[in-house]
Amino acid sequence: MAVEEDHWVFYFDPNRCIGCHACSISCKQFHGRDADADDWRTVTHHEKGEYPEVAEVPVSMSCMHCHDAPCAEVCPTEAIEKRDSDGIVTVDQDACIGCKYCGWACPFGAPTYGDNGLMSKCNMCLDQGPGSGAGAESKNEQDDPIQPNCVSDCVGDAIKAGPQREIIKEASQAAAERFQSNDGRVVVEPFRGEENLDMVEHAATPEHAGD
Amino acid sequence: MSERVGTLTRRNLLKTAGAAAGAAALGGCLTGDGTDDSPSGELSTAFGNCWMCSHNCGQKASVRDGTVVNLTGVDGHPRGSAGPDTEGTLCPKGLAQLDKTHDPKRIKEPHIRDEDGNLQKVSWDEAFQYTAERLVEFDENNGAETFLDATSWAETSIFRTVWRDLYGSPERISRGIHVCAGPTFVTGGMMGVGSNNRVPDYQNSEYIIAWGRNVLNSFAGQFEAKGVLEAIENNGATLVTIDPQHTITAQKSEEWMPIEPRTDGALALAMANVIIEEERYDEAFVENHTYGFEAYREAAAEMPPERAAAITGLDAEQIRRVARGFAEAAPQAGISVWTGTAQAGNGWKATQNITALNGLVGNVDRPGGLRLWKYPATASFGEVCEQDYTNRAEYKEPALKKYDEYSDYPVRHIEGIAHNLVPEMVENDHINGIVCHHDDPLKDGNAEAWIEAIEAMDLVISIDAYWNGVSRRADVVLPEATQLEKDTLGTGNWSAYPNHKWVTGAKAAVEPQWNTLPDFDILTGIADAMAGETGNDDWTIFQQWDSHEEFIDDQLSTLDLTLEELDSGETNYELVEEYDYEQYSEDFTFRFDLDQVDSFAKAAEEAGMDTAPEWIPPGTYGDSTSEEYPLEFTDVRSVFFSHGSNQPHERLQDQFAKRNRLSGEDYRGNYLYLNPEDAAERGIETGDMVAIESKTGSGELMAVVTQRARPGFVTAEYGFGQTSAITTGEDAREKSADGMNTMMLHDMQMDPITGQVDRHIAVDVAPAGGD
Fold first, then answer.
1. What's the predicted TM-score (pTM) here?
2. Which of B412, B299, B301, B308 is nearest to B352 (CA)?
3. Whose CB among A99, B43, B445, B736 lies 3.0–4.6 Å from B757's, allowing a Cys bridge?
4. In the CATH scheme, what is the code of domain B631-767?
């Protein structure tokens, strides 16, 4: 069993996000998902203030593969698994009964439901297509594990993914500290421009996710 | 190139053997639910040069069974990365090439219009033969010189050879000067720096002014956005954005100057005022390498920051601060400027005044400043063509210069054509036909008159991938294979490599889809048919090449390269020649005053403007707001769309709707952005359909009420609505797409010097009513 430091996490630097949605599009293309399906990786834009004292900040978010994975906790058929090996939360659609408990339990709205009613969400590109990745070889066992497509196609180089111990090395101290004190979900760099910090905080807290 | 960033592996799918299990699913899950058939063929990689906005970011494609199943960027690519050892990516438009390649809404077969006026599917042989017959007939009846070449979107240089040299038409309209940023291109050329005034040397800059540009979203190659971010992070560069509307670039700037629209010329002069008054300019450069400084100094003296503040609505202290910051950082200070200040009636002087700042601080061809970018020395058509032929357009003058009917238009001294004047030229029988290749003139200005003009022409040939306003009205429709379906060679000047010239090349990743052909094959097919129809051997000049690849190899011969070499290996580009900064000669001259440029001096005199930098208020040429039309409109660009050709892609439409928080609506058009003040006065809320009206046109689109919009100023993304490529399938060929063709509001407004369409229009907006 891998230690938590080997679990894969996402990293997001709001200072480098240009709000272009390439991450959302490349995610859908890689997983063969229709344009109008709910995004697994979503870019939201948060506006405040009055012209010309106006600010608008884009935030790119996906399933955070939480250490406590509330979606897995509530799944009655154990279709959702928080993998010990690499920390990636996968769903086995053969076991999913489409009850949507996971959707209610997730603070970030990560689970989506297709025409077949079954849950699908980000699997860090362990495999391709909705429901894939369950049972796939651990990212940590692969010789040269592929990066999630959203990372490979991030124009601003704002998104990264990898084992927590590696990602933390790349992050600023402030981002690392924040990660430790924020349930260890996703590593987020502090936003330059103190006056707008609350906008990123707002977007990255469970009760406001996706606002 | 390194494939590692820190300790993290950043390789893409296809470089890894370990990805085989994951890759095996590729292609089998494209129908959406991931449960259907298993893929069978081998997965392979191929390259591409992205042409969605025509700026050649490198693409790496995953291909299985003749289908492109994934796309990503090329590491270290000159246009698609931040330079050496950095990731290559694709923007949303570039990613959409995957969908475009296999889009069932594309034109799939050649068509010709029958005697009853209906388009009928024909074979390529029939299409080529019919095209040749019609071209010969057109020449006999109207003269080839009245045939307008609108093919500047081309990925091969032989378009110009076919239409100008062989067919003999001097009439050519381009996307660049005529409808994109005429003043930017032409002032740069006349002032001595070419059109390099647009893109500075970001990587080495310490102070970047994005002047009327949302460079982080509306870029000419991703290296621009990446270069700005790198300059901020690595050089601690200051980013300043001058823009009436709030953008992502404004958001990431240290200073946003929310300027009154069309007053950029006053701001530029005020900055010069501060720099000259405080003696912060580069005296040596001004002394040794400029002309007309006294006239410039006098114009700047008349624009102290307080006067400019009253004109621009900006704070005088902010103007001083930015002027000082720019001058202090110079020569490592650059200005990024393109369409924003150019698409206005007074755009010429705005651009001249802005470009002049570079000469003043002496940043010309110095690290971090205005780079004199260079193209690689690929061989021209003349150099590689072994057969002699007669250039039939050599002694022909374009109608604009030839006939008295246009003597009131100063543009005739500068350009051979003006977009807005084409309908008048059609009425005068000076233009009677057009060949249009992906250009979308019906979205570029004076739209209503242009639609009538296209319908009145004797011959319309459309080479395109989609059923749009031109192809639907054409007599001949030649369906083109899109970029990943053909061999391409890309070159350019500006890039992430300020000291290298470069080329990028790619062989076709997949076969042409349906019954389409690459543009090279379409043109050589027409030429072969013309050879038979006319009996003139000049039309056989392309027969020396068996394929486009052979022609490209000849173009590359001067660099001792082949397409095969470019296309093999881990990347698809080559840095070919190194060049240093400050390579201009001792007698290099940067002109502040353009009185020595005869053509401009004549045009300026007729237009009533000075040859030196000068402040010309909005409304001098073009619209002023009034009681009846109290709002100023202009159209804008986003990261999702470029020109009029990306709008059919559902992924882009849906993400654009999401970006505007309106994806829940059954509407995928453009949005009108207006300030809450203006919206409240009119009882408009986000999501309402609104009617917008100018003196000469009107339309309907959906409103977005936002504080990012300046009070009194409304904007919308262009390229939508009437005359758009259809988005609902071939059967609904005449159905208009959602949204509004913004240029239906436009009439004849233009910059009098270059004829550049002036996209600032006085309008009013009201609730449209209904659903």
1. 0.94
2. B299
3. B445
4. 2.40.40.20
